[in-house]
């Protein structure tokens, strides 16, 4: 690998981290609004495998950003959501591996992603 390729990889890694950090900043606003100054013990987040969010970097960003907030002692649990498609030909709904969007039942290309692109806070556990 030459130096230019290594630099591209480092820049991509930094971009991914910044992306996840901005997501965590938005999440913190939502959490603080709902927690109403109560301490958060646990945060559960669902992330689709096609969401463009890297779970490792999201967790790292959360751990970095939570200091001095209602989430200071909170743990983040990430639930990864697999890609699921619906076939317009046979009507089946199937979970797929990788990025082959053909219907595994009939082989049709006429499919639509119905899950795996989402990212949302599933729930927040507050300290009593």
TrEMBL record:
Ni(2+) binds at residue 19. Coiled coil: none annotated. Zn(2+) binds at residues 87, 90, 103, 106. GO terms for biological process: protein maturation. The keyword Zinc applies. This is Hydrogenase maturation factor HypA. The lineage of its organism: Bacteria, Pseudomonadati, Campylobacterota, Epsilonproteobacteria, Nautiliales. Involved in the maturation of [NiFe] hydrogenases. Required for nickel insertion into the metal center of the hydrogenase. Keywords: Metal-binding, Nickel, Zinc. Belongs to the HypA/HybF family. It comes from Lebetimonas natsushimae. It holds the Pfam family HypA. GO terms for molecular function: nickel cation binding; zinc ion binding. Signal peptide: none annotated. PANTHER family: HYDROGENASE MATURATION FACTOR HYPA. It comes from the Bacteria. The keyword Signal does not apply. InterPro entries: Hydgase_Ni_incorp_HypA/HybF_CS, HypA/HybF. Gene3D superfamilies: 3.30.2320.80. PROSITE patterns: HYPA.
């Amino acid at each position: 690998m030459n130096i230019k390729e290594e630099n591209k990889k480092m820049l991509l890694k930094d971009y991914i981290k910044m992306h996840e950090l901005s997501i965590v900043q938005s999440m913190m606003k939502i959490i603080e609004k709902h927690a109403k100054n109560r301490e958060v013990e646990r945060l559960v987040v669902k992330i689709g495998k096609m969401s463009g969010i890297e779970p490792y970097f999201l967790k790292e960003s959360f751990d970095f950003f939570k200091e001095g907030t209602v989430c200071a002692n909170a743990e983040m649990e990430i639930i990864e959501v697999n890609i699921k498609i619906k076939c317009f030909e046979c009507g089946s709904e199937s979970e797929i591996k990788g990025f082959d969007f053909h219907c595994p039942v009939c082989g049709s290309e006429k499919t639509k992603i119905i899950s795996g692109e989402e990212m949302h806070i599933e729930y927040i556990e507050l300290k009593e």
